[in-house]
Q: What sequence folds into this?
């Protein structure tokens, strides 16, 4: 995968094909106009963003760190039982900022905020100090028992990120692979008298709400379902050896460290609780979760050396009003535990890829955690990316003509540039330096849109993107030893379509000539719900029949000065104002009987429709239904599928669903040609995908 620009182009084209096949118009003029509109800037996607992955300095292995710093060897042994893959053929070395995080957090007892880039191992920077403290404290635990309390609370802004963390924790703290390569439970059995480091996710998805007595029946059903899932995973692993599946669902073994239901966590607090600020706020207000906080408070008061870890991922997301709310929730939490923000028994561990070590950041830290500027200075260590070299414009000229001709034939490119290898091309024409120069903003190399790189390099406008694409493709093919010369990461942002709108005048003067036809029933299309077209006529929402592709217009009906007006704007008290669907009726056949459609006259300037003065040119549907849309198309007479409230009308708004778009993207990445798409994309080491609720895709095309 050496051409992220081409991948983005392919994804965009396949997404467009999905839209055209799922919501086809009956007329090519509509389809062509929609395609042009969707391909305009930031409608269905942003231009690809290219990021240079920093090369982080590898310092030492976890064993070497323990020997050097006098840290217990138990720590290194346990980390290599799951958090670091024990089955890997490669010796894992810690980055410099990871080493500093461990030393500063465990020996210096500093608060840590890791502000290195994406993919720099920030998660290890807070998990490793936490595991070190758990290893040290657990030396005093016995077979007879150990104090139950929260040793750490991990806060995530999104449940999707919390789910990712659960996979990591299952492998780090609860692994039990048959061959013993990743077997945290076996190590704890041998070295900690069988005690476990308990963890649990406490969010809205955690089963089951209510007291144990009231939720008993639902809890039994949930347990059966979890056990079925776990047995299915075991069978799959035994059959095919796919051990990674072991960490996708909660382990239901009796000696498991994961607490999967709320009631068990309420009875016995987990050592690590994963949640979000909304759920934390609810927990602090209810009595049912009180034991979690009381057990933790008792544990903290029992020994002044016991530390409660506050771990916050994506710290920068807590800004403005919501950030203030979260900050106060933390103050309430600490007060509930008998702590203050500056207590030596609380340790803050946070991460963010969008912050810098400056006065503004430190002021924000103080305000968020409730600390003075002096306390922030004394307590916090900010770990950031290593400083980059000064970037200057290369002196050698780019071989523009040869770069434009480069497609896939590498040997032809070598001949044209009189070079013997791809690395020689990069060195001779300083392509890596040109790319860095194109990404400089405010003196720093910054993740940049391809369009911005083209502008910075001052390339010929008509071919600029092709030249940058060739530069990126060549750099992606250049290796130094086993590693890439300059690892790149591509960020693709695709968005859902939340509707289309159109002028209600078929003779719209603002419509491009190429899209005008004698049969056209609507005017110019818009991607935003404006009220008035530039021609002065009313704009309404575009509705289409998924069966025949006919176009309709929709809007909210309201009475103004005794007149029925249809408008795209939803009025106050919309429940009393029905959503109506309007159709220009040019067909010679009569309106289907008992279909809810009636003949009206319509004024596309004022938006007024009149039932009693019908001119036969328009029909309207204004019956209130659960969907607001008619259950039968008057053109093809296709009726809704299903029954009752589950009926799916043939007419639909022009929008796509989040999950469906994610699936289209996943299938497209696995099968760029669109051949036999699978139900779920198989991820390979060269194509790492994260599908988030807003359909953001992160890809690492090449590099370590």
A:
């Amino acid at each position: 995968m050496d051409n992220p620009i081409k991948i983005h182009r392919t994804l965009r084209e396949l997404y467009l094909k999905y839209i055209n096949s799922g919501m086809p118009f009956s007329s090519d003029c509509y389809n062509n106009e929609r395609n042009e509109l969707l391909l305009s800037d930031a409608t269905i996607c942003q231009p690809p963003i290219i990021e240079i992955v920093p090369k982080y300095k590898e310092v030492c292995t976890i064993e070497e760190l323990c020997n050097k710093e006098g840290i217990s060897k138990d720590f290194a042994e346990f980390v290599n039982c799951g958090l670091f893959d024990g089955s890997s053929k490669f010796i894992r070395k810690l980055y410099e900022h990871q080493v500093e995080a461990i030393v500063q957090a465990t020996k210096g007892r500093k608060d840590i905020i890791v502000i290195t880039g994406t993919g720099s191992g920030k998660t290890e920077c807070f998990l490793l100090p936490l595991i070190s403290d758990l290893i040290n404290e657990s030396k005093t635990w016995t077979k007879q028992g150990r104090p139950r309390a929260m040793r750490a609370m991990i806060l995530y802004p999104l449940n999707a990120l919390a789910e990712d963390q659960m996979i990591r924790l299952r492998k780090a703290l609860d692994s039990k692979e048959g061959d013993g390569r990743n077997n945290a439970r076996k190590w704890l059995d041998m070295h900690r008298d069988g005690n476990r480091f308990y963890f649990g996710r406490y969010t809205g998805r955690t089963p089951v709400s209510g007291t144990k007595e009231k939720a008993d029946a639902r809890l039994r059903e949930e347990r059966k379902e979890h056990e079925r899932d776990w047995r299915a995973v075991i069978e799959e692993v035994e059959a095919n050896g796919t051990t990674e599946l072991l960490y996708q669902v909660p382990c239901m073994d009796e000696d498991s460290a994961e607490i999967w239901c709320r009631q068990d966590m309420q009875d016995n607090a987990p050592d690590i609780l994963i949640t979000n600020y909304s759920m934390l706020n609810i927990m602090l207000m209810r009595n049912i979760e009180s034991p979690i906080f009381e057990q933790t408070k008792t544990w903290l008061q029992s020994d002044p050396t016991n530390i409660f870890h506050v771990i916050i991922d994506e710290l920068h997301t807590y800004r403005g009003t919501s950030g203030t709310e979260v900050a106060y929730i933390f103050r309430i939490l600490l007060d509930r535990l008998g702590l203050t923000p500056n207590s030596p028994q609380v340790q803050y561990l946070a991460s963010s890829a969008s912050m810098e070590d400056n006065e503004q950041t430190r002021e924000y830290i103080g305000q968020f955690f409730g600390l003075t500027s002096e306390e922030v200075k004394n307590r916090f260590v900010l770990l950031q990316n290593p400083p980059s070299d000064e970037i200057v414009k290369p002196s050698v000229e780019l071989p523009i003509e040869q770069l434009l001709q480069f497609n896939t034939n590498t040997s032809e490119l070598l001949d044209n540039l009189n070079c013997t290898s791809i690395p020689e091309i990069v060195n001779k024409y300083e392509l890596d330096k040109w790319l860095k120069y194109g990404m400089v903003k405010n003196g720093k190399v910054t993740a940049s849109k391809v369009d911005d790189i083209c502008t910075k390099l001052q390339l010929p406008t008509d071919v600029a993107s092709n030249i940058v694409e060739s530069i990126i493709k060549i750099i992606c093919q250049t290796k130094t030893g086993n590693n890439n010369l300059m690892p790149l990461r591509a960020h693709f942002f695709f968005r859902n379509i939340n509707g289309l709108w159109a002028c209600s005048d078929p003779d719209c003067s603002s419509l491009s000539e190429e899209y005008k036809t004698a049969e056209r029933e609507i005017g110019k299309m818009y991607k935003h719900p404006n009220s008035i077209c530039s021609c002065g006529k009313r704009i309404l929402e575009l509705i289409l029949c998924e069966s025949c592709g006919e176009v309709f217009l929709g809007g909210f009906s309201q009475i103004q000065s005794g007149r029925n007006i249809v408008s795209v704007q939803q009025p106050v008290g919309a429940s009393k104002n029905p959503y109506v669907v309007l159709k220009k009726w040019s067909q010679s056949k009569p309106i289907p009987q008992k279909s809810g459609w009636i003949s009206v006259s319509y004024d596309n300037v004022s938006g007024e429709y009149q039932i009693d003065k019908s001119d036969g040119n328009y029909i309207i549907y204004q019956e209130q239904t659960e969907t607001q849309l008619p259950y039968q198309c008057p053109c093809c007479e296709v009726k809704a599928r299903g029954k009752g409230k589950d009926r799916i009308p043939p007419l639909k708004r022009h929008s796509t669903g989040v999950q469906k778009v994610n699936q289209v993207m996943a299938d497209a990445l696995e099968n760029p040609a669109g051949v036999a798409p699978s139900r779920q994309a198989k991820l390979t080491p060269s194509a790492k995908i994260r599908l988030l609720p807003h359909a953001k895709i992160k890809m690492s095309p090449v590099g370590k």
Observations:
- The chain has 22 helices and 27 strands.
- Residues 58-193+270-384 form a domain with the Rossmann fold fold (CATH 3.40.50.300).
